[in-house]
């Protein structure tokens, strides 16, 4: 009985590792291509394309490893994933523009695939080590959104994952489901993978957002107007000069009208009022 149970557990672990590898491949391809396209949009050279793609694909995993105690050097053992990422970015770099436009139209969908795959991957990592629920949630979230945040920062953009439609919440939801073992088998994990994708796409299509409070306009008077003070002062000076010129012209007109009564009547006609 014990031998049969041990064999069953070994087979289950092997299957879990297989599905774990599938999620890693899916997330790597989706995020590597995403980073490469953002780099080309920002007109980076080919080195910048590869750097931004690699950072997007592996940055979240590196941050996760640091936080949950996995040696960062394990990154260098993922040679196959590096090859997959490099091939994906190379294809994206040489594809015609119309093909990339098709990708752009489906960008949210592929981004949702990467989010779901990496969130589940990170949660499985943390659960396997035996971390508490807080660490599992952080691992799932950072693995899912960490690469996108680093990508946007390096590209000089505001991180969309923190201000766009609901994004990180779905990664945390995946981590919660895995920690409490609501989804364990291969079929269940694939179901969770699909659920996270659907939820992300629903939030994009219906623009679901978390509550927010903006202070941008509240502090506009004291923060955003200060650099414009010299411009405002210069404008006032120009207005004063123009007003002085108008007064001077009016004075000349009055003096001339006094010396020429007929001209005064003409200038005071209804068409000049």
In short:
The chain has 273 residues and is an all-alpha fold. Helices cover 76% and strands 0% of the residues. The chain is built from eleven helices and no strands.
Summarize the SSE layout with pairings:
Layout: H1 2-41, H2 46-68, H3 79-94, H4 97-105, H5 107-129, H6 133-154, H7 168-179, H8 186-205, H9 220-224, H10 229-259, H11 261-267
How would you characterize the overall build of this protein?
- The protein has two domains: 204 residues, no CATH class; 53 residues.
- The protein has eleven helices and no strands.
- Helix 1 packs antiparallel against helix 2, helix 1 packs parallel to helix 3 and helix 5 runs antiparallel to helix 6.
- The longest helix is centred in the N-terminal third of the chain and has 40 residues.
- The radius of gyration is 31 Å and the shape is elongated.
- 31% of the residues are buried.
What are the key terms here?
2 domains; single chain; 11 helices; mainly alpha; disordered C terminus; elongated; 273 residues; 0% strand
Rounded to the nearest angstrom, the radius of gyration is 31 Å
The overall strand count is 0
Structural class: mainly alpha
Q: List the helices and strands in order.
A: HHHHHHHHHHH
Q: How far is the N terminus from the C terminus?
A: 109 Å
State the helix count.
Answer: 11
Low-confidence spans? 7-11, 262-273
């Amino acid at each position: 009985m014990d031998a049969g149970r041990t064999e069953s557990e070994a087979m289950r672990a092997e299957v879990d590792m297989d599905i774990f590898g599938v999620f890693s491949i899916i997330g790597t391809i989706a995020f590597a291509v995403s980073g490469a396209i953002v780099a080309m949009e920002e007109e980076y050279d080919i080195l910048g394309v590869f750097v931004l793609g690699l950072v997007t694909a592996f940055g979240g995993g590196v941050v996760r490893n640091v936080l949950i105690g996995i040696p960062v050097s394990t990154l260098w053992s993922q040679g196959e994933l590096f090859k997959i990422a490099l091939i994906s970015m190379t294809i994206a770099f040489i594809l015609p523009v119309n093909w990339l436009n098709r990708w752009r139209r489906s960008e949210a969908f592929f981004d949702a695939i990467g989010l779901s795959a990496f969130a589940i991957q990170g949660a499985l990592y943390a659960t396997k080590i035996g971390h508490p629920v807080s660490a599992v949630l952080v691992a799932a979230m950072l693995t899912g959104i960490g690469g996108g945040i680093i990508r946007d920062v390096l590209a000089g953009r505001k991180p969309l994952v923190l201000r766009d439609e609901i994004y990180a919440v779905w990664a945390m939801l995946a981590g919660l489901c895995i920690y409490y073992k609501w989804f364990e088998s291969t079929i269940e994990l694939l179901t969770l993978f699909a659920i996270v994708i659907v939820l992300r796409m629903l939030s994009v299509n219906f623009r679901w957002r978390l509550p927010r409070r903006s202070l941008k306009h509240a502090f506009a008077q004291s923060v955003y107007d200060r650099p414009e003070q010299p411009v405002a002062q210069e404008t006032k000076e120009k207005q004063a000069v123009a007003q002085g010129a108008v007064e001077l012209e009016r004075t000349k007109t009055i003096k001339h009208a006094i010396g020429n009564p007929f001209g005064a009547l003409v200038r005071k006609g209804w068409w000049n009022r």
